[in-house]
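batch_manifest entry 22 of 60
target: C2H2-type domain-containing protein
source organism: Aspergillus nanangensis
requested by: lab member K.T.
priority: normal
notes from requester: please return tokens only, no post-processing; we will run our own comparison against the previous entry in this batch. if the run fails, retry once and flag.
--- input ---
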Amino acid sequence: MSYTPSDYEFLSNVDLLNDYDQSLAWTPQPSPMDASEPSSFVCRWEGCCYTGAFRRKADLLRHLETIHISPQSFACLARGCHRMFNRRDNMRQHLFRRHENADQIWARFCATL
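--- output ---
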């Protein structure tokens, strides 16, 4: 199944991942040593330019979430900074490398979770 941007208005990220998983759009490739155990998973999202394979299904699901479903969904927490990131850990790394008082900003953010 392929999705268009308008589909995002009606489906949550979890719904998209579950549907993607259940439709078997991911392709497990058999391991040369044991054909019953998949050794890699390939993204089959329509229009995806990534040609590599993922070792674990969790890695493929992270790729789907951060690249296809909700890219650039984490804005830098520092006032006046408009950088966007596809993963929270990347945003946190930027915050601590580029902004003073990052400890205080991050603590306020974590208190809201």
